[in-house]
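// run 5 | inverse folding | seed 20
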């Protein structure tokens, strides 16, 4: 989204708590170690939480300020931070216990987002977990942002064939975002676990 102020977003989200869905996913996994991937790491809050819970974390963001902030915030922890476009990032199959993409993939085109979701499915080990938030098709931004992607639950379930949906929620309400902009949000959020067979 070309007119989005990513530096302001990074600054405004530096003091938030780790994503609740992520905390729940770590509890479900019950792991004390493993590989985690944070696609769109922002200020590094979730990457730090994962590292503090025993994960080796690779944190990816295209924004220079986000990368620098995450490096500072996660200094001394097992977090590798790289400035890359998520759309171009190569997820190695069967390597991650946990992957999070929280409101990241919706800022890509539908084709890019679809490709990455399939790569995430392949990138998880068996029983690995994906924590996500996507924008739904009733979101305010649908009208003016054809470069973004908006989903339905049915599309997601049809695309990701090798997973179980542990938690799947839909939120529709008017509220301010991280930078204070008030809009109608349609969000699809969940926790997915890769099937063992």
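// decoded
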């Amino acid at each position: 989204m070309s007119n989005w102020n990513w530096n302001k977003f990074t600054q405004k989200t530096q003091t938030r708590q780790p994503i609740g869905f992520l905390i729940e996913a770590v509890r479900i996994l019950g792991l004390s170690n493993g590989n985690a991937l944070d696609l769109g790491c922002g200020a590094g809050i979730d990457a730090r939480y994962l590292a503090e819970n025993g994960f080796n974390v690779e944190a990816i963001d295209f924004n220079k300020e986000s990368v620098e902030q995450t490096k500072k915030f996660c200094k001394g922890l097992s977090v590798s931070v790289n400035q890359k476009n998520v759309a171009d990032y190569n997820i190695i199959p069967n390597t991650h216990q946990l992957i999070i993409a929280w409101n990241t993939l919706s800022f890509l085109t539908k084709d890019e987002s679809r490709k990455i979701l399939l790569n995430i499915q392949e990138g998880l080990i068996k029983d690995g977990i994906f924590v996500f938030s996507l924008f739904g098709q009733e979101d305010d931004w649908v009208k003016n942002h054809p470069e973004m992607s908006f989903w339905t639950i049915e599309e997601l379930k049809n695309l990701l064939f090798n997973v179980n949906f542990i938690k799947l929620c839909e939120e529709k309400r008017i509220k301010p975002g991280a930078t204070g902009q008030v809009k109608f949000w349609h969000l699809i959020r969940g926790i997915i676990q890769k099937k063992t067979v």
